[in-house]
Amino acid sequence: MTKSEIITAAEDMFNQFSTNCAVIDEAVFFSSPENKWSIAENIQHLIISTNTSSLAFTLPKFLVRLIGGKPNRSSRSYAELKDKYYKKLADGGKASSRFIPKPIEIKYGKEKLLDDWKRTTAKFTSSLKKRRSEEDLENYLIKHPLLGRITVKELCYFTIFHTEHHLHSIQNITQKP
Predict the structure, then answer these.
(1) How far apart (Å, rounded) are the C-alpha atoms in residues 32 and 34?
(2) What is the 3-state secondary structure (H, E, C) of the chain?
């Protein structure tokens, strides 16, 4: 995918996620299914994850290089990286401690949480548009807690399919009786 295609795919997925969440009843939104995150906690997890991903665009390039290094390979395709992610999940991979959401009470408010999500996604796409070139996406690595060292382009792919993954989790919660 080109940078432009990544931005379009990210914006489309973020909008699809937001639209889906907006119509969920607030009681369902904050209730926790047994041994699962609530919809609100899924969103909080995505906010933490997406804000962390945005650092690849907002930090100075020399810091991204210092922290992550320089790639010695081309980026994997979207499908290859998505397959790798789902294999890691199948092998027991889970969110590490800093990415685990804290319980959220209904008094926080669904609209406030969705506004937080919209601000987070706007920052992600805006920073990508303004602060990184097409070449930058291939020339910098970041450390991902589950996927290891990945290019910034792969981080963009991850952000898209990670959002989709949590959209499916939320849809599974809302489809249960």
Answers:
(1) 6
(2) CCHHHHHHHHHHHHHHHHHHHHCCCHHHHHCCCCCCCCHHHHHHHHHHHHHHHHHHHHCCHHHHHHHHCCCCCCCCCHHHHHHHHHHHHHCCCCCCHHHCCCCCCHHHCHHHHHHHHHHHHHHHHHHHHHHCCHHHHHHCEEEECCCEEEEHHHHHHHHHHHHHHHHHHHHHHHHCC
Look at residue 60 in the predicted model and tell me its pLDDT.
95
pLDDT bucket at 105, cuts 50 / 70 / 90: confident
Q: pLDDT tens digits, residue range 70-85? A: 999 999 999 999 999 9
pTM above 0.90, yes or no: yes
Its domain, for residue 151, covers 3-175
User: How would you label 137-159 residue by residue, b for 16+ Cβ within 10 Å and e otherwise?
Assistant: bebbbbebebbeebbbbbbbbbb
Nearest to 156 by CA among 176, 136, 177: 136
State how many domains the chain has. Answer: 1
Residue 87 maps to which CATH number? 1.20.120.450
Check if the beta carbon of residue 27 is closer than 8 Å to that of residue 177. Answer: no
Cα radius of gyration rounded to whole Å, the chain: 16
